[in-house]
Write a structure and sequence with these properties.
8 helices; four-stranded antiparallel sheet; two-stranded antiparallel ribbon; 2 domains
Length: 235
Amino acid sequence: MRSVPKTLKSRMRRVPARVRRRWPRSRPSARSEGRSGCSEHRAVYSRSYLPHFDAARIVQGITFRLADSVPQSVIARWREEILLNQRLRTDRARHEELQRRVARYEDAGRGECHLRRPEIAALVRAALLRFDGERYQLLAWCVMPNHVHVLIKQKQGFPLGELVRSWKLFTAREANIILGRTGRFWMPEYHDRRIRDEEHLNRAVVYIENNPVKAGLCRRPEDWEWSSAAEMEAQ
């Protein structure tokens, strides 16, 4: 199993001081901390158009996206096309085809791409690092211009949906302050995929850290500042 040897204390030095000052005033809710009846993992469930799997001590690949990265009208059209495709006969096949289309679309850099701004990318990095080792083990991550990839090992008592919700709440509030805007920052849903074994884990890490290279943003994974590849290179 991959681990990230840099200590949390040393990594926190890279979190912007303005963000660290706000943390005591933006404590997560009791719900997100599992203190109000929401600490149970939900196994298989669905929200909106995506199925989810939630369980303790498993490794999950997670993607969440900016609200304008893939318009809902485009997703709705794709869903209709996929549903009518006789080749895709199972729910899983239809779901995977939808995810392939979404990934191709978002890698093209659609939308405002607010995560290109270093101060906003730093917010997301700070949110991911904040509870690494406490609520989950962070194995790999990458902040792209309009979406985020994360690979974690879940811990008991911290459901996946609440983890993603806490990342989004903090970063949306702070990003909107920076941008001088209001309204939805993140798309409501997220995508998760359970990692089956060591080989699958290694492929997931490579995919996440090579995403900026694939999208033409840099030549090497470690050249993209907002990723675990760059963090590992800096050690």
